[in-house]
Amino acid sequence: MIQVNGDPLEWTPGMTVRGVLRAKRYNFPLLVISIDDRQVQRADYDTTPVPDGAVVQVIHLLSGG
Amino acid sequence: MSHNEAAPAIIPCAVDFTQRTEYHDGIEAIQAAHKVLKEVAFTPSLPQKGYNDRTLYVDLTTREIREKPVTQQMKDLFVGGRGFGLWHLWNAVTPGTRWNDPENEIIISPGPVAGITQYPGSGKSLVVSISPQTDIPIDSNVGGFFGPLLKFSGFDALEIQGKSDRDVILFIDGQKGIIRVEDAPLDPPDSHVLAEVLTRMYAVDEADRTNISVVCTGAAAEHSLIGMLNFTWWDKRRGCVRLKQAGRGGIGTVFRDKKIRALVVRGPVVKADMNHPADLETIAKTGIKLHKEIRTLDDSQCKMRRNGTAHIVEIMDAYDLLPTHNFQYGSHPDTHKISSPVWEARCSQMTVDGCWYGCSMACAKGADGLVLKTGPYKGHMVTVDGPEYENAAGLGSNGGIFDPDYLLELNFYCDTYGICTITYGTLAAFTMECFQRGILNLERTGGLDLTWGNAEADLEMMHQMARGEGFGLIAGQGVKKMKELFIAKGWGDPQLINDIGMEIKGLEYSQYLSKESLAQQGGYALTNKGPQHDEAWVIFMDMVNKQLPTFEDKAEALYYFPLFRTWFGLMGFCKLPWNDVAPADNGTTSEPAKIPEHVQNYLELFTATTGIKIDRETMLMQSARVYNFQRIFNIRMGKGLRANDAPPYRSVGPVTREEYESRAERYDKQMLEEIGVDPAGKSVDEKIAITREYRMARYGKLCDSVYARRGWTPDGVPTMARLAELGLDVLPEVVAIVKAHGG
Hints:
The complex is a heterodimer.
Chain A: E1 2-4, E2 7-9, H1 17-23, E3 31-35, E4 38-40, E5 55-60
Chain B: H1 27-33, E1 35-41, E2 54-59, E3 64-69, H2 72-78, H3 82-92, E4 106-109, E5 125-130, E6 137-142, H4 146-153, E7 158-161, E8 168-173, E9 178-183, H5 191-202, E10 212-216, H6 219-223, E11 229-235, E12 240-246, H7 251-257, E13 260-266, H8 280-297, H9 304-307, H10 313-318, H11 340-346, E14 366-371, E15 381-385, H12 389-396, H13 404-417, H14 421-436, H15 455-467, H16 470-475, H17 479-488, H18 494-500, E16 503-504, E17 507-508, H19 518-525, H20 539-544, H21 551-571, H22 576-579, H23 596-610, H24 616-636, H25 657-662, H26 664-675, H27 684-710, H28 720-726, H29 732-740
Parallel strand pairs in B: 2-7, 8-13
Antiparallel strand pairs in B: 1-9, 2-3, 4-5, 4-7, 5-6, 8-9, 10-11, 10-13, 11-12, 14-15, 16-17
Helix pairs in contact in B: 2-3, 3-24, 8-23, 12-13, 12-14, 13-15, 19-21, 19-27, 21-24, 21-27, 26-27
C-alpha cells in the first residue's frame, strides 16, 4: 500500500510514477510530484519506481478560466 | 513527454479559414442614415508611465461630453481598471439606483499596464456597471483592442451615463481628435454583422481596420437580463472581425437600455512604447523570458496555443468536476465528443491567434466554416471563437449536449445575440432539470422539449430570447427570477427549486462542480460579484492535493487568491499567462501554486511601467483596497452581508437521491469518519438530510474563518480597523456605511 495525497492506493510490483498517475486518473499536466519528499522530474515519470509504503505527493497547480 | 521533446503533430483542419458569409452589402445606406447628434474635439494623447490622467465622460441623456481628471487619490486608492470603474460608479449612483436608471453607468477601463505589447496577456479591459441580475456592481474582464486603443487615444477610462432617446453610436477618433454621438437607425442588431459593418465604415482604408475596435451586443440583450458586450479586433489573416466578451452580469442589457448600438474607437497605429513606460528595457526583457517559456513548455504543459482553455474539458471530467446535467454530476461517458482533440481539429491552427498584440500564449481559437442549421442566419457560413472551456462545459455537458457542431452554433448565437455563454449554459441546464423533474412541461415551455441533450430546443429557446417571445423571454430573466416565478406559480417544491437553481446574488455559477470542495464553495459564494471562478479557483488545492485541511488553511487561500487575482483587473492583465504555463523549475519553489517567478514578473512590469516600486505586500494592498471597497459598495446597495453569501445547496452537496447514490461511497465514508454516524441501515433520504446538516454547518464555519482572515465582522462587514489599514478611512461615505453595519 502507498499513500497518494493522503489516500491509500494499492501498491503493485514495478509501479512507477506514471502508474500512480494512471491509477488515480491524474491527467492534469501541471504537476509537482514527490516520493517521500524527493521531487521527481516530469521526464522521469515513466522510469521512477514507487516503492511499497511510499508517501507520494501529487500537487496539482491551478489552471483554467 | 519532457519539455524538450518534439511537439505532437498538429491535427490539420480542412476548413478554408478565409471563406465565410460576408455582410458588406448595404453599408453605404447604413452610413448615410447616420446623423451626427453631437461632436466635440479633443487633443489625442499617449499615456505617460501608463496613465493619461484623464477619463472621458459621456452623458447620453444630455449628450454632454467632457474630460475628467484622474486624481492622484484615484491612482493611489484604486490604481486603474476595475478600481477606476468602481470609483466612478460609486460617485454616479445612490443606494436606490437600479440597473435601468439613467444614473447607472457603464465604465470601461484598461488599467495602467494594459496595452504593452511585450508581455503576453496585457490587453485586457474591465467593464463595470450596476448589474440587472444582481443589483450590485458587476465587473467583467475582456480582451480585444478597445481598451488599449481607448487608452492610446488619450483616456484611462470611458464613463457612460444617461440614456439616449434613440439608437446611437459613440465614435472616438483617437487619430483626428474627434468624439461623435451618431444617430444609428439602420444598423444591424447582431454583433457578427454589426462589427463587420462598423469596422469597415470607420476605417479609412483596409490597413486602418486594425486600428478600429467596436463594442456591441445583440438582439437578445434587449429582451433579457443576461446581455453581454463583445469587444472586437480585426483579424488580418482571416479578413474578418473577431469577438471577445465581457460576459458576466448583464452589462449588455444595460448597454441596450441606454440605446447604445455600439462604441467605436479608432486608435493610432500601435507601437511598442505607447505607454511611455519608465523602463521599457525591463518590460522587454521580462516579456522575452515568458515568450521563451511558453515556446519551450506549452506543448508539454497546457497546450494553450492549440486548445486554449478547452484543454481542461477532459481533465475536469477525469477529476469528476465537469458540470453535467445542471451540476448534478461531474463526468459523462460522452465527454470525449467535446474534449480538446475535437476542438484542436475543428479550430484553424494556422497562426498565432491572440486577442492583443504580443500574446504568444494565443489562446483565442477561431473555428471557421461553421454552417448554421437554425435561426435567422441559417445557412450562413461563419467563424466563431471558441469554445473556451466555460462554453464547452456550460453549453455542452451541463445541458447534456455532446454534439460539437451544435455546441459551436450555441456559442455563435450567444456571441452574436449578445448573451453570456456561462450564464446561458447554467440557466439552460436549470430549465432542463426542471423539465426532467416536471417543474416545467411542454405546456409551460410553450412546446419546447427541454430534454437533456436536445440542442435544437436549446437553440430555439435562445432564438426566442433574441426575438423577445415565448419561454425564451422567461429564461432570459436568469435563474434567480425563474426560481421566483416557478415557485410563485406553484410548479414544484420550493426547496427543490431553490436547491437546484445555481445562482448566488442573482448571478449564475460558472462551470465547475464545487460540491466536493468546501474551499471552492467559498471560492464561489464568498465573491463580490457572484459565483465566478476568476476570484478563487482552489478545487485542486483543496479536493485533490489536500493542501487545505483546516478552516484556517482554506481561509488563507480565500484571502490570498481573490486579492491576487483582483490585481489583474486593476492593471489590464489576463490571468492565463500567470498559471497556464509554469517555469520549468517552478516545482522547486516553496509555493508552486502561486507561480512565484510570474508574480515577480508582474511586480517588475508594474514598476517598469509606472516607475512606482512595489513588492508582494504592496500588490496585495492595492487589490485589498479595491476588493474591500467593492464589498462595502455591495453593502451600500443592500447586499454584501453574510445572508447574501448563502449558496444553493446543489453547490454544497447532493440534493437528490440520484446524486447521493452516484457518489454513495464518498458520502457514506464522510458520514462514518467525519460526522460520526454509521450510514448502515439508513435510507438515502435520511443520509441526504444528515449530510446536508453537516455540510451547511461546515460552510457556516468556513464563512467565520474567511471573514476573520479578511478583517470582516461575523456578518461580513469590513471592520474600521481594516479600513484604516487600507487607507479607505479617508472616504467619509465608506466609513459611514461600515459604521452603520457594525464594522
